[in-house]
Fold these 4 entries.
Entry 1:
Amino acid sequence: MIKMVNMTLSIPQELHKIMKKYSYIKWSEVARQAILQRAKDLELLEKIAARSTLTMKDVEELDEIIKKGLARRHRATS
């Protein structure tokens, strides 16, 4: 048997209005599944990063390349 704990969160009023419109949906289950998926994704990223041979300098260089590419793409579509 899995022991569950309670968690309280705040949501914007507009989101609450939408959720009330679809009251038949088990929103707590939707939230639980979304949180579970994000946690699994983070665990996977952590495993990948642990095996990475990239240095911080490599990461910074890649970051700069990606940012420049995104800026070029943004300028081209503006």
Entry 2:
Amino acid sequence: MQELQVSVTQAQVEILDRELFEQNIKEVVTKYQNYTVTASTIKDDKQVLADLRKLFKQISDERIKIKKVLSKTADDFNEYITEQVEPLDGVIKKIAKDVKEFEDHQKALRLDTVKGYITNKASEYMLDPRLFDEKDLEYVKAGDFMADGVTLKKATMKSLDDMVTFEFQKQEEYKKTISAISGQCAEYGMTDQPYIRMLKDMTLVEVLEQIKADYAFEKQKEEVRLAQERAEREREEVLVQQENEHPEFRTILGCHIDEETQEFDPETGEILGGGQLSQNQQEAVRGVENGLKRYTQKMTLEVYFADTKEKDYFKNSLADLGFEYKKNYTVQGYQRIEPLTQVELEMKL
């Protein structure tokens, strides 16, 4: 093929009277670089500006004209070459397209060869060949095959063997991991699936520790539940025992009442049908009530007494109402104080 050969003669541009041109520019610049515009000379100032612009335009126009002349040769050459090589460019693109199609076809053949080899090797280990769909593309380069382009090199086959073997070992290790988790869950009576999913973000050791922690937590919850049930049974047994110890009573609202009595007010002991409970009966009722009572409120009460007699009266009144010291109330801060009148006490309160 004949290559393009070009003879280029560099263009020559000669500026006539170069030194005189440069000298004239310097003189003009020197003359007008400190020029001052005034109101009295504004008409002349505008004329000076017009003359300077005219000089600058003449120089610029000459520069543009010479540049076009110099560029025309290059533009003509570029247009000529572009026109001549256009058919050649078309041939190159066609051949390049054919080469690419051929290489893609060869690559597809090599990929089929690799996939077939992997499928056979994977079947030996009972593995799904689709596990290697992303990795088989790493072995389809021309350098991985013999000169015929379709036969795998021994080194390539060994790499593929190692890849499949490694995957088999990984699968076996995963099965052992799953077995360890399932075994631990079976021992504790727990479902294994939630913990198997944890393997995406945790190691086997971490998952097993999580299983143990969850088991301990659930066991603690179960112990609390059983303790509550046991306490409830014991409470019921106490009620049954109390009923057995007082067969003359029946249970209404958690209190024991004479079988022959009518309904009564458990707070006052008043028999609603008439009459009054005996002192022993009231104490029995109160004892059962206290055994079942659950306290849900409390308050702090500050009481002022005139003397010890009044204090004892207050204490006895509490006992009559079912409040016993150190059983359902306590006293803190009991002390003697300076005597106060009723008015002083009311002001203090």
Entry 3:
Amino acid sequence: MELSRIIGIKCVVLAFLWTLTNGDTEVSCVFQESCILPCSFLGSTDAVISWSLLKARHVSILSYNSKQDQLTQQDEHFRGRASLFKDQISNGNASLQLTSVEFQDEGRYKCATGGNNDSFISLKVDAPVREVNIEKAENRITCSSEGIYPEPLLTWSTSRQTVFRSTTIVQQSGPNRELYNIKSSVIFPDTKHDFTDMTYSCTVSTRSNNKTAILSNRNLKEGIAKAMVAGVIMIAVILGLIPICCNKFNSKMHQSCSVPMSVLPTVETGSMELQSHQAQQVPDAAEISSQLDLVLTEKTSEELKTLIAPGHDHEGDDLLPKAAAEPTEM
């Protein structure tokens, strides 16, 4: 009795594996992207199509009948994310398109088109390895990659045999902690280890893809060369800016300290008045002397004309010596 029960269980398992291997179409979708689950039939203008996810409970995804979608039984998880190619249904295309694929979408799907022509699709969701970073600091080389699903594997390799130990840390991230971040470090006990004579490779792999990052002698030399070039350019820029800044500073100091003066004659008093002109040039000595001679000459001429003018009331005539009185006859 016990033997027959065991044989029965084995037959069920084998039947399931046969269906999965020979009857299911495996589809791999990328997390947060669109994906198509294929399904085809003979084609009809009156086609009846239904899609469902076979889990612990029957999850209705989408139904199509009478040339329109029937969404009354649609599960909320697929609302707004599932659709058919309606313009191709008459040609026998009953494929389902899912948008913004999530990890909860993984599972076994059933496409029913009437009769015994049901199709089964096994869907897997992956977040592939997109980038692998490798860097060196002192006697440590670190390799890392982020946002991967399912849990990745990280391996090291070198161009020639060497002894080293590595430490790998795997952490989960994302809103539901579904994505994996992986980081591994190789530490060399000898701090004087020559990193430039070898090539180091770090490979991060999952079931869907793998990527490799390489740290080689060329990478290190290029990094050193780039750092040296950047340093030389910075020094050249600084040296070029110093004279310009000094010239501008000296020019501002000269303008603020020098106050040009011009000498203008004052006709009313015959004296000279100094006036400040910020934007004028100082006249030379010959020009000043010429202006003074002209002013003094004009002043003297005006005074003489005033003194000898007819009808002038000579104030101060009493200051002139009077003429001697004529002698009277005795």
Entry 4:
Amino acid sequence: MSDKTVAERVIRVFADFKKVPAEEITMDTTFEELGFDSLDGLNLVFELEEEFDLTIPDDRVASMKGVRQAVEGIEALLDAKEKGIDVNAAAMDEFKKQQAGAGSKKVDEGSEPA
């Protein structure tokens, strides 16, 4: 891992993504202030996942409204990873549960008599 703090790395990812100087982004900068739409937010999450080599679970993504929430969420995930908790496996389990729920709903919707 680099010598930079999580906050510095998150700010750099935000700055690179928006193509602005890192000095323009603070811990209190929000997605709204940066003009992010939902697609930008999703792409930013992919960039953060790549930077930190982890999967950010959907519940963490939903709670991210800006830099501070991103930093806090990533710090928590990195802490869990350091303690031996496989956050990627936990995220995959969550994804599978959601898919199973969505799949059964689709089956129910598609099972109308012809």
